[in-house]
Sequence to fold (1348 residues):
Amino acid sequence: MIVVMKPFATQAMVDRIRGRVEELGMKPHVIVGVERTVIAATGSESSGIQAELEACEEVEKVMPILAPYKIASRETRREPTVVTTGSLTVGGGHIGVIAGPCSVESEEQILEVAAQVKEAGATALRGGAFKPRTSPYAFQGMKEVGLELLAQAREATGLAVVTEVMTPHHVEMVCRYADVLQIGARNMQNYHLLQAVGETRKPVLLKRGPSATMEEFLLAAEYVLDQGNQQVILCERGIRTFETHTRFTLPLATVPYLREKTHLPIVVDPSHGTGIASLVPAMAAASVAAGADGLIIEVHPNPSKAVSDGSQTLTPAAFEATMHTCRKIAEVLGKTM
Amino acid sequence: MIVVMKPFATQAMVDRIRGRVEELGMKPHVIVGVERTVIAATGSESSGIQAELEACEEVEKVMPILAPYKIASRETRREPTVVTTGSLTVGGGHIGVIAGPCSVESEEQILEVAAQVKEAGATALRGGAFKPRTSPYAFQGMKEVGLELLAQAREATGLAVVTEVMTPHHVEMVCRYADVLQIGARNMQNYHLLQAVGETRKPVLLKRGPSATMEEFLLAAEYVLDQGNQQVILCERGIRTFETHTRFTLPLATVPYLREKTHLPIVVDPSHGTGIASLVPAMAAASVAAGADGLIIEVHPNPSKAVSDGSQTLTPAAFEATMHTCRKIAEVLGKTM
Amino acid sequence: MIVVMKPFATQAMVDRIRGRVEELGMKPHVIVGVERTVIAATGSESSGIQAELEACEEVEKVMPILAPYKIASRETRREPTVVTTGSLTVGGGHIGVIAGPCSVESEEQILEVAAQVKEAGATALRGGAFKPRTSPYAFQGMKEVGLELLAQAREATGLAVVTEVMTPHHVEMVCRYADVLQIGARNMQNYHLLQAVGETRKPVLLKRGPSATMEEFLLAAEYVLDQGNQQVILCERGIRTFETHTRFTLPLATVPYLREKTHLPIVVDPSHGTGIASLVPAMAAASVAAGADGLIIEVHPNPSKAVSDGSQTLTPAAFEATMHTCRKIAEVLGKTM
Amino acid sequence: MIVVMKPFATQAMVDRIRGRVEELGMKPHVIVGVERTVIAATGSESSGIQAELEACEEVEKVMPILAPYKIASRETRREPTVVTTGSLTVGGGHIGVIAGPCSVESEEQILEVAAQVKEAGATALRGGAFKPRTSPYAFQGMKEVGLELLAQAREATGLAVVTEVMTPHHVEMVCRYADVLQIGARNMQNYHLLQAVGETRKPVLLKRGPSATMEEFLLAAEYVLDQGNQQVILCERGIRTFETHTRFTLPLATVPYLREKTHLPIVVDPSHGTGIASLVPAMAAASVAAGADGLIIEVHPNPSKAVSDGSQTLTPAAFEATMHTCRKIAEVLGKTM
Fold:
């Protein structure tokens, strides 16, 4: 941790902060420059220590050196984590493809689309039974009935089921039906929920919040990992920026960046990341080229009849064409899909 | 709702969409322009209808006309909502001031600061017992013991207690101690939590999420209102932008903008909104000048010993000076504080 | 243009605005809904008309229907524009690759790197002679001497030269040496400069400003096109968002989005778009997969000795490996590179 | 400058970077921590040195300690700069108010509005003769005729004239008519223009670019100051964020923040900062309360007939009411206006 003293700091001020650094359990190294004195504090950093030093009047700013996440870090574990459950494998040179409708709407709908996405090469089925909706007046999902239909679709196709859980109270119920627990973007910092899914042994698909930094994203994963659940898949799904021509801005540099920082696998959601069906195929291909370990894509037999998110949903035919291109790009990179 | 057809749309396409608008229960009005045909659809708009029309291939874009929130809208209720509980009144020409530490740390700390902020003119006490922290390794709050200490401070000072509830499971417990339930920024779209506090009859202080639009913010309030709880205070606490010299960017135009759109009272949090104690007094004054109905400010007897957020926390002396200026500005605007 | 009246607008107010729409040369169609009256105005839209209507007290908002750019629009010209100059072709199924150092530093440096990037497959040479620098104390470029060295490198390698022009006064001079005039991101809305390059017949590489919307970007191109210069290449180079782990956020959805809106070719700059050399190869590959018509990449014989932007600059070896992958992805998409 | 070595850096790597720091003219101090080695480099920092060190493979990141601006810094000059020209004084406890139309439209219009804003207490007249417009098809200003009309209005009212200059070639002409040269937000990093106005001895009103950081803003001022022109007024006019309910997001914390960093005076433009006339009075009041040294506000005799920006323009009556409130808040703060 680097503590930068204010300009014109006196020796007494420097001594006081040096003492404070020691009290906080770190070792101070004072470096006197021409315009500023800085104190390099070595030892175990924490956000608490940083906050206490920042609040000292003599201090201009405090710059941490170490990443605050530990279990998620590549420095802790060099080899990549591969998440496998039933038909789905994500990471380790294999690109998992999770496809399906935004919402489970009916038995007929979910069985039809499950068969279609399987045929096109998807290795898991997505579908929302509990739907976080911006408006209280929008369709909120079929709830447990929807979960039952997802399980039925797994029976019929063999596809692993990925579905969202919205509140700690539902974790046990969702675990009875799902293969992968999805944490939605709005809940990325719902810490009680993260701890609750961390206590299970189901893989967790953690979506990045639309204004989350990389550090916040990895610390959210750390909440799950810290409970003993090592099966975390990170999902980039777009951030909120000034751009309005797309629903969100999809920053694919997330993929190679996270690759350097963490051993956890990274998937991309080009459906939410763009919000526009006609842009999804290009961005799915770009995600694979950027090195993603997986894709999660919205597909519906008839997007214009979908109860939610129709405008970003592919038809089965468009999904199949997308898969074809992505598979060839995966081959260029020496990966299977 | 305005449905803009794609360029070169044929008459058959226009007819199909006109039919779809009717099926969805709205009345279509076709307007043929030189470069585009648009269909104005009158009747009851919904996000579901918008989504279905957007997903039609013949449609370029759909522009809603009506705001999606209803109970929160000034069109539903012209007179301002005033929230009163114990010592705290927010709205209706009275500026409520909620002050106290980021976290409850000890009996001594909370009693001392409660007395100090009361002395300086605060009308409610803030203090976190359950703390949402970015890192799982940071202090998570004193939990129920903290709530007890807050209740004790209310006994001692008469100040109403404002404190955060993080998960639906805790709502009942927090209600036993608190006068106002705070929903933190990270939980603004935690819909199960919003519904749970909506079922109580305690006032709710709803913080804006750091990437929430005005519409999303008001729809989050609508989740609470829709459960029958009319006592919602909106809180602007800063948004995430490219600026890094402050912790968040504090957009005070929120205050007059929301005044035009909603009858709910609006308070501002200049502590989180800047993250820097030296900027808080100016931004508190600016908030009052912008028309805020209240302030929520972090104060600690010794900021550099605070367990969290010390760098944005005022000393009791700085808080008193801030109150002095703010009160005079309130007088200029014809308000009491 | 859709004019939404305020709630509770009287018939007299509606009549007044209908009259105003007619005065402004458009044809009004009044549609009375349950909660709002809207007036659809057909005819030739302009930002001036929109502004005048928005400023009327009776009006809640005005929503344009038509895109404000004309010459750049795909509706004006369906077939893609292909820009060709010397060794460089951008668009029409051919991916142009512009590579070279951030700044021209010396004869030796520019000749060495020109030979290296040509060997690896680049089809044009980049290099700054006039450098816009955030600080007045940073290296500002070799100026005309730098231009001469670029021309010398073209002699030696046959590579077309792409270089930045910063002010109208220099346009003539830069034209004497360069094959493509680059407009930097900071100057995207420097309208006198856009007009000055529009008056030449040199191709223009127009970089997106870091906070420019798609509409502003295309309107900046329109400034050039409107002067009669049809050879405009659009360049996505990253936008400013809350992300700080990369220098900018590189939103690749720009590529397929612009493809739908304009006939102009689109290249991507993964060097500025990430600011981190280790992320450039993955983002170059992703750009090609997203459908880009070209790449512009910083390469230097010894990045850690570069006078500017070293941390985002590839070594010749890394550039060659990147080209290899990109070329294979181009083949998957049926393009040449 | 703090150079953080990569994890697992060997002694040889540390030695190499220590040597590099010395070669670059700084003094290295090696600090070995448990997880990282850092090298504190004292001496004269520069962006060039930072870039060179960041480009070294052994280096994880480089954190500068010193601000890159010098002449603009409060550390260079403690007492505030006060800019005075004719009727206008900005800074030193006096709030200057610059008001007038977006564009000069006619002799009648500018003389009428000049008289009106003077009557209400403005101390300078604004009005655009050269208008930077997003679309090439929008009104571009009356040019030199507009400048003549501004000078005529100064004759009639005694108000100092503030007007924009867009390109270096026009600086001399604009100087003949204007009292203060305005640099628009789009040109904040048009360095040739900054240098050209820096060579004059006219005060410069420098608007913040919509995506400029504080450091970039102060470095743009530094370009002017470095040419010997000390009369720079900084102007906050809103930044581009994800918010769309206002034209820009107006971050008033800029005012107290810049106060700590620079001696230059700071004015706020609530007209562009919100884009909505009904929000301007509250944000003008908030700007004064935040400590601004001045305001720049758009006023037009008939906003709905204005050729540009009508929707953000106050009527003379609304401006007068705004002035009344602002003046009282200025008194609370012990300032004159």
